[in-house]
Give the backbone structure.
Amino acid sequence: MGRTYLVEEGIGQYLTELSTKVKPYVTGLLIGQCSPQRDYVIRAVRTPPKEQQQQEESLGPPKLASLDEEWITTHASQVSRMLPGGLLVLGVFMIATPELAKDGQNALRKLIFSVEKSLSKRRLWKPAEEEVSDRAALQICSATKKVVCRTYDVQDPKSSAKPADWKYQNALTASWVALGCTVNVNIHIPLLATSPNHDLEKNTKNGLNRWSKQIEDSVFLINGQVKDEDTELLEGQKKFRGNTQPSTQISDVKVLTQLCQGASPRSTATVQVCSGSINLRGAVKCRAYIHSNKPKVKEAIQALKRDIINTLSDRCEILFEDLILNEGPQKKNFGREYHVLPQRLFVPVAGSSVMLSDYKFGDEAAGEIQERFVEMLDQPVQAEDMHIAEDISTVDICPVTDSPSDTQQAQLTKATLLLKLQQNMGLVVAAAVAVLASIFSFNYFSD
């Protein structure tokens, strides 16, 4: 028996409209949530059209072999930044004419693995072993409107297609649970003097990797309580009956980070010579959504943890992309600089209780955000519906020397040697005592 996909009813109308407008084929992403029992699809988003692709189609008969894989995976990466915790790219869809339908599944299979590979590269967290790894490949014939849904296991490169049920449901997210929290961030990332170059983006990612492990080990209080991970999130709460219209339930979450990292309370301090540092400071707003079909506490906390990690990582990526765009990719070393990370904003989606998000720099106009929602999510939004959720967070880059002089290099080398000598002083003293003891015992027994 294959997986079951419960699909927001409005998606059916959206796909039908696409099939009448676009010829000979169109691709897109399926957005939703996985759960052990079933998966939920809350949005379908077409791939933004590309001018070059339109020109190629006008020159000759279209072929699925001409699909721009890089364009589609880039779109998936951009869309994943706009998703709150609990939501992910669940798969891809294709609407094609009968002439192209026979090659559709092969093309979809290739896209599914490419999209997953692209998204997994950006993650600072690892999927759990028991996590659902099936992704959907939805194919629709533009002439007959026939829908075929299959799944592939993205953890298995040799995975074959398995059939899946595609069922529409009204008000799919009406009673979903929303979890929100504010996390204070103060991350210090040293830039080693011995490093051959100071790639700020790479060093920042390494620092965020260490910080993400601290978030993974944190304690989460849901409405002021520590709950057992295997209990139901909604245990003890009232259920809606009859014609009562449920609404999204919001849970307030506090995140308690551990001061001591690692399994042992004892740790070994590392002394390193640094020539600069990166400091991330601020408070970030995080949000996650979870289905209402007996969700476990573990699912909810995992969704929120990933949103905390993703939102800071995504902002840093966006900042460095902006720096490269404005200052060029060759700029590796910086003087003392302060940069403001983009602020997070949330936007309601028509027909859904789930809000999507985006990031805004201070000098960006509301019109630019609206254009991005139309391009990335095929979703028009009103300026008054965009809610900026937080205050400003900053990146402080302390001076990094371009290339140390001979004197500086000698001082660094001397300092490094002294540090190593101090670290090994105990071993040196112990060795000296052992040698003296051996000489004494030798002389004593010789006498």
About this structure: The mean pLDDT is 82. Residues 342 and 362 are 7 Å apart (CA to CA).
